Amino acid sequence: xxxxxxxxxxxxxxxxxxxxxxxxxxxxxxxxxxxxxxxxxxxxxxxxxxxxxxxxxxxxxxxxxxxxxxxxxxxxxxxxxxxxxxxxxxxxxxxxxxxxxxxxxxxxxxxxxxxxxxxxxxxxxxxxxxxxxxxxxxxxxxxxxxxxxxxxxxxxxxxxxxxxxxxxxxxxxxxxxxxxxxxxxxxxxxxxxxxxxxxxxxxxxxxxxxxxxxxxxxxxxxxxxxxxxxxxxxxxxxxxxxxxxxxxxxxxxxxxxxxxxxxxxxxxxxxxxxxxxxxxxxxxxxxxxxxxx
Length: 293
Description:
By secondary structure, this protein is of the alpha+beta class. Helix content is 30%, strand content 20%. It has a domain at 52-253: Umud Fragment, subunit A, CATH 2.10.109.10. Strands 1, 2, 3, 4, 9, 10, 11, 12 and 13 form a nine-stranded mixed β-sheet that branches. Strands 7-6-5-8 form a four-stranded antiparallel β-sheet, with no helix packed on it. The longest helix has 22 residues, at 26-47.
């Protein structure tokens, strides 16, 4: 009987006891946190946001050499690109790289390293990754120039305050070269877009290399994140918004009553990484992928 009572007391004590989970030592927890961080980086880079490095001056002074930009990779799953946006895309076979690098090794180790690096956004980019501004969309007629040297889209002259060192008006147009500002009227084919760099004097773009399929777009560059003194959003200029609004068939920019894809893609990675950093006390600074801009 006494033993029975003793068992009851013991059971009550166990039920009232607070069971604490044993803390993992740092040497065990750190590898786990690194694996979680790697998986988060792969998911974010693959589906949401990717960092890109600007290696050339074809988008000056909007984007300077050495800038790092974040590219929203989901926004065009919800809508099409629209006028004035800065997009990252894969060029067609007609597009030649503007920055030449050393040939890539085809050894097994080099290929494996590029595959792993590409997952986390630290690898050397392909030769056909470019960054430009959207000037015209499918069905549009684009040409240059009006009597003030401005580009025309569907007969409407476009003022572009962001242009830095425009191409020459005096140089005669030459097929396959972008040295002249002048080019004849081009009708953008279905499913494609006409893109140009802001530094027209050096940019190799759709003037001489042809339009680009919308399906080749990787995403929209929406913010400069490095260097910190140049941190700023890459908004669509007001004149392009006005032009798009005046065109009945124009793709509507994200906004209005719909959730903004840029906002969601920017906030979600920070929420994920903030939670990890708060747990581990670690910070992560991923390197960026280079562009042929």
